[in-house]
Design brief:
Blueprint lengths: L4 H6 L18 H11 L5 H10 L12 H20 L1
Bound molecules: iron/sulfur cluster (SF4).
């Protein structure tokens, strides 16, 4: 089991409790863009994304990606793994 403590300790979102990090799936692009702006300056952005992918955190914005974006990334990774196996 991976220890993700360093992600929580370095998280830039801790400085932005005023933002809703678990917006409704139908939230507009502006809402996601505001969250992504914080993520893009976060020192643990890459680790946060991998934590969300590994731990299957489906809801909310993690690592600068929305639920929909992570779903697409999950599919792309799955397809790439399948192609690598069958190559
Ligand atoms: S990448 Fe975004 S959601 Fe993840 S820890 Fe940083 S600010 Fe928070």
């Amino acid at each position: 089991m991976t220890d993700w403590t360093h992600v929580y300790e370095g998280a830039a979102c801790r400085d932005h409790p005023e933002l809703d990090w678990f917006p409704d799936r139908r939230a507009g692009g502006q809402t996601i863009a505001a969250l992504r702006e914080v993520c893009n300056s976060c020192p643990v952005q890459a680790e946060c994304l991998e934590m969300a992918m590994t731990e299957r955190l489906y809801h909310g914005v993690w690592g600068g990606m929305s639920e929909r974006q992570r779903s697409r990334l999950r599919t792309a990774r799955y397809q790439a793994a399948r192609e690598a196996v069958s190559a």
